[in-house]
Amino acid sequence: MNPTSCPNCSGRNLYEGPDVSAGGGYAPNYLPGLGSWWLAETFRPVVCRDCGLTRLFASKGARGKLADSAKWKRIP
User: Fold this and answer.
1) pLDDT confidence tier of residue 13, bands split at 50, 70 and 90
2) DSSP secondary-structure letter at 19?
3) Which residues are CB-contacts of 62 (< 8 A; sequence separation ≥ 6)?
4) Could you tell me if residue 50 is inside a domain?
5) Going by C-beta distance under 8 Å and a sequence separation of 6 or more, which residues neighbour residue 32?
6) Domain annotation covers residue 63
7) Using an 8 Å Cβ cutoff, are 33 and 24 in contact?
8) Which of 55, 59, 37, 35 is nearest to 46 (CA)?
9) The predicted structure's pLDDT at residue 2
10) Tally of domains in the chain
């Protein structure tokens, strides 16, 4: 992940935060089938200071499991 400009406003004031959990337990699991049974995968948030658009990028570990997961289908 290496965004250089905001897709919403073309701003270049992007800020990357620390990894956050993709959920699970009592919260929705936004990356089902990609974590382990006791630990959800993570997202890396990126926020545009100019317009506030916030994007969540799945961790490298989660992306590596997509092709083998029964819960995710590749879009042609």
Assistant:
1) very high
2) -
3) 22, 31, 34, 35, 41, 42
4) yes
5) 71
6) yes
7) no
8) 55
9) 66
10) 1
- Predicted pLDDT at 27: 80
Determine phi and psi for 63, rounding to 5 degrees: -65, -35
d(CA 52, CA 74): 29
Pair of tokens at residue 53: 């658009």
pLDDT in tens, 39-61: 889 999 999 999 999 999 999 99
Range of the domain at 22: 14-68
Residue of 43, 45, 51 lying closest to 12 (CA atoms):
51
Three-state secondary structure string covering 20-52: EECEECCEEECCCCCCCCCCCCEEEEEEECCCC
Phi (first) and psi of residue 64, to 5 degrees: -70, -20
Residue appearing with tokens 């620390």: 18
Structure tokens belonging to residue 52: 């506030």
Q: Is residue 73 part of a domain?
A: no
